[in-house]
Amino acid sequence: MLKNPLKLLNWSVFFQTQIFMLPIMLLFYESNGLTKGDYFLFQGIFSIAALCFEVPAGYIADWISRKKVLILSYALFLLRLVLWYFLGGYWIILVGELLYAASKALFSGIADGYIYDLLKSKGQTTRMLKRYGRMNFFMSAGTAIASLLGATLYQEFGVMTLIVIEIVFNSIAITMLFFLPDVPSERTESLTTKEKYQDLFKIAKSALTNEKIKYYIGYSAMAVAASMIFVWSFQPLMQTAGIPVALFGVVYFINHAFRAGASYLLDKTMKIFTLKKLGVTIYGLFVIAFFAAIAMLHIKNIGINMAIMTFICFVIASQLTFTLASVSRIHSLVSSNIRSTVASLNTMVSRLLTGFVLILFKFLLDDVNMQSAFYIYLGLFLLSAYPLVRLLRQPDTKTN
């Protein structure tokens, strides 16, 4: 038995998230004959596909070993890379994104459930926020390092080299998972297939009508969708602003470095902020970020535009802090036998909104310019004031 299996999980996440292609993904799409509109469309399809997998994945993990689900998650991502290395073109790229969606859905709501149940078996559930934050730190740190190197390696060796490197790192990550201890499901009762689906929808209905958590789920989902608008606009924004490709990796490094910092300091941050205060803060930051992105479309100064991108990265990291704290709070409010299902439901709502706004981007780019699209998205984000206000009416508590 490993003395600290969560460290091994952290390192497996670190290797699995070495996504060197991330800062040049738009260029990879274009090299396969796709357009900017296809780029946003595929990311929207990715979110909707992940949404379709999300709750069933979490529900399955409440019944079988979470370790096996994690291994399957990594394997699907590895299959994506192998397909992209040996094949190419519109449909292969789309299949790869669907495999990635399934992989992310299996991981979301499973990894945090694994951490919680492992800590519970040791009587250490009070350490959930810290351990969950540490895992997300390794996740963001892995992507940050790969992003910093990705654009440079792409210019020197081409995209196929990046895919090979990712295959090697993902193979290492999967191997590590086999050494983790199994955390068995606490659900032991025997149900028919029909009863299982009835149980699934019962849990979903209960979570979405729970006054203690539904507004956190709703507001978190709108904040995540806003973040994804910015994340997938990074490369089009930088192209329009005339930022050199070599700096694409720097921006993605900054983004994931901030995310890593937000994850690492999660427990300390939430000793200072309540979820409600943090919610109000990120609302204001996002409004500023939308206006900053619009301004960036008219500014040709690389230094100013890099400063704007850095600010947007900070806003995204702030959103991550809120979302991680919300997930941790949900874990403390639901029973262990439905924890993965409810956590996946939380992510599912975020993916639904993200899929909608990214697919909408495809059609907006066909009819209006990017500036108009950002004004429309700003108007949509302002609607998140409703769940935020309802959230503010709840008792003020800190997340521990």
Give a structural overview.
It is globular and about 55 Å long. The protein has 17 helices and no strands. It has 400 residues and is mostly helical. Helix 1 (5-16) packs antiparallel against helix 8 (159-177), helix 10 runs parallel beside helix 13 (275-296) and helix 10 (214-241) packs parallel to helix 15 (339-367).
Total number of helices: 17
Helix-and-strand structural type: mainly alpha
> Segments where pLDDT lies below 50 for 5+ residues?
none
Q: State which percent range the strand residues make up.
A: under 5%
Q: Whole-number average pLDDT?
A: 84
Number of strands: 0
What percent of residues adopt helix (DSSP H or I)?
over 70%
Oligomer: single chain
Rg is 20 Å
Largest sheet: none
Along the chain, the helix and strand elements come as HHHHHHHHHHHHHHHHH
Report how far apart the termini are.
Answer: 29 Å
Shape: globular
Labels describing this entry:
400 residues, mainly alpha, 17 helices, 0% strand
Topology:
Elements: H1 5-16, H2 25-31, H3 36-61, H4 66-86, H5 90-107, H6 111-121, H7 128-157, H8 159-177, H9 193-208, H10 214-241, H11 248-264, H12 266-272, H13 275-296, H14 302-333, H15 339-367, H16 370-382, H17 385-392
Helix pairs in contact: 1-7, 1-8, 3-5, 3-15, 4-5, 4-8, 7-8, 7-11, 10-13, 10-14, 10-15, 10-17, 11-14, 13-14, 13-16, 13-17, 15-16
